Amino acid sequence: MSGTGITEVMDRPVQPMGHINPDQPPLTEKQNVFAARPSTDAAAHNVETKSNASSGEEKEKDAAVIGEMETDPDDMKLDYDPFTPFDDLPDETNRIVTIRAMFVGCCCGAAVNASNIYLGLKTGWTFGASLFGAIIGFSVLKSLAKVLPKTFPILGGDFGPRENNIVQTAATAAGGLSSVFISGIPALYQLGLLDTPQSDFPRLITLTLVGGYFGFAFATPLRKFFIIYVARELRLIFPTPTATAMTIRSMHMAATGEAIAKMKMRALGYAFSAALLLRVVSQYAIGILWDWHPFAWFYIWGGYNNRAIDVENWLWIIEFTPAFIGAGILVGLNTAFSFFFGSVIAWGIIGPSLVRQGMAFGKPLAPDDEKWSEYMSYASLSSKFSTKDHPSPRYWLLWPGVLLMIAVSFTELLLQYQVIFFIGKAIVRACCKAYVDLTKRMGKQPSEKMQQRASQELDDMVKDSAEPHELIPWFWWAPLLLVVIICTCVVMGVQFEMPVGMSLLSVFLAFFFSFLAIQCTGVTDITPLTAASKASQIVLGGATKGEGWVTEKAQRLNLLGGSLASIGANQASDLVGDFRVGFLLRTNPKQQWIAQGLGTIVAVFLAPAMFILFAKAYPCIIDLNAETCPFSGPSIAAWRATAIAVTDPTFPIPKSSGIFSIVFAIFGVFMIIVRHYAYRGTWEKYRVYHPNMMCIGLAFVLPQTHYGTAMLMGAIPAYFWAKKKPEHFDIYGYAVAAGLIAGEGIGGVINAIFQIAGIAGPDPYGTQIGCPALSC
After folding, report:
1. CA 760, CA 425: separation in Å to the nearest integer?
2. Chain centre distance of CA 413
């Protein structure tokens, strides 16, 4: 998974070129886009030569260098200092925060936001809007700028890279804030701690408002800290924002960039349309167009008298989900295989063994049908199957998966201890510098020792591309931050009966984890929202135990406080990533700040509205006792499990599951340490084969095995595509993947509207032919 990198939800998202957000799930490491890359000039020459040879017609083999690519090392060379802005961009005399830029950016962000609610409720994965907004924005506004006269109201005028940056910034802001609506907020409803989403809509709006604008205001001073003061010292490259800046730069390189952008947009449009059409149409013949149940078919062809039904019961099916085929293209083989083999371990080995040994239990789905009497569900989380003595396999496997993800996230975070130490030093230095400056303004001379502590080597600092008058003054963001903190205490106290002290604790946790999240994002492109949210829940759980509150109140405040901290940290890390894009493109920070604030308004209203739409169309999302549901909500289960574990005095976890959880988490920590330290020298080449433990943990929480299969369906062809035709893949790979992901997401929104309108399939319209027991 948010935005930067891929934000899970398992608190992690998937980003172009392969990164997953733990609110945004699993993650893959990206190589430094500046470390080595093909010569842009050579690639551009390749495009121009081929374009000329074809009399102006665009060929599929046109080459371009955008972001990260798999290329032959012999063709790579160092091009740029990653901490120096681009100096070959055209000047822009026009105002860059335009109505057209904000409208297109917010529309792109809204599409990603809606898609993320759909995809996150299904799988816990979310996808960033940064590159999506950059490409769509260029294609739409560059075309308008060419067709319309410059004096045309609103839509006319030149379109340059910095206005393109504003489109992308607005898209990121408008596409954010969805993570808690696929995790903490639904968990509150599943536990019966809030009323209904429709009646709570005003409360959800205000919660999102204070959380989102806390992250917005708090991210402002962090621009100078993370982009200027400590970027070089800590090697904060911010891979996805850097790739986005390079994409925008390359698209604005005269005719070459425009030709490549057209090819990208065409591929994205075709993929988007096909995915949307498939998602909408397939609901009317789901067993034919969407889900294939080969083992159910074998069972039928065998006269309902063979053991193929046992495989079907564990949901080993094939689903043609464009979003996760696209995700496979983005994340690569390591993540896809890790996710798939995690499903094999959980739902192909451990789960069946638990049932065979009588340690977990299933529920018959068609007990009155003699032919399908052995058709079972092993994924129930209803009250009957969520106890110590009578757990379903899903409930038993939930705890090892959640604990593994928490342990892995914290280990990844703690292994950055040197960086955390440097951040601490930098904070002290910044405070000392502020004190020295204030003392001098008062006409006094600060001590020599204090001046030494405040000093920083000029070689360590990054030269800010922004002019002094372009920087955001403190009186813009500081009063806003203070007002937001006060409003947070009022909102949480009046609407949710949260004490002021606990509200302030949640704000402090958001502040603390924002620092860690931004640092990790800058180095690894991974936003550690799993660690941030779960750590917040654990700290808040300790605080509630000291108050002696009843379990229901403790759980409500735990989930609300964790949601508030997660919203703030996620939004802050996303917006600092946008500042990194603007730094490289020399965009006015004040203009970016305005775009971020306006885009956040869209997200504040859109994210809760999309959640309510899906909750109304599919009530099973917030019903813990629902036996079947098209949305499994793995992030919801993870948040709910953590809240129960830290607040419920009975600790309702099967003993065998608890023991295995601890052993499994220790193994996961060991594997992370091995990956961090073992692959050095001649062993470095084996790092790519090391399993992704976050993905394996997610597979334990997600009973649908077909998502891992779908990711392989995308990752394996993409691997050979990139290997055989790297230039071709670089142009079309991300565009196709983004189109597939966004297309299915928007198709899912349309399906939800159809469901409410009573015209959805397969019930009341359509057929369930091909489904086991005629029920998909």
Report:
1. 58
2. 18
The set of residues, in sequence order, having a beta carbon less than 8 Å from that of 506 and lying 6+ positions away, is: 488, 492, 536, 540, 560, 561, 562, 564, 565
* 550 closest CA partner among 505, 497, 506: 497
Total count of residues recorded for the chain? 776
CA distances from 529 to 2, 247, 397, 515, 570 (A): 9, 26, 22, 12, 7
Indicate yes or no: pTM above 0.70: yes
**pLDDT tens by residue, 334-383:** 999 999 999 999 999 999 999 999 999 999 998 888 999 999 999 998 88
Contact yes or no for 286/768 (Cβ under 8 A): yes
Which residues fall within 8 angstroms of residue 250, CB to CB, at 6 or more apart?
Answer: 40, 64, 65, 66, 257, 260
CA 64 remoteness from chain centre: 27
What span, in angstroms and rounded, lies between the C-alpha atoms of 30 and 220?
Answer: 26
Tell me: cis bond preceding 762? Omega within 30 of 0 counts. Answer: yes
Per-residue confidence at 105, pLDDT binned at 50, 70, 90?
very high
The pLDDT tens digits of the residues spanning 623-681 come to: 988 878 889 888 898 899 889 888 888 778 999 999 999 999 999 999 999 998 999 88
Contact 581, 165 (CB under 8 A): yes
- In the numeric block, which tokens belong to residue 749? 């929104």
Cα distance between residue 284 and residue 773, in whole Å: 17
* AA letter at 298: F
Distance in angstroms (rounded) separating the CA atoms of residues 507 and 491: 13
**Is residue 49 a contact partner of residue 27, using CB atoms and an 8 Å limit?**
no
Amino acid at 690: H
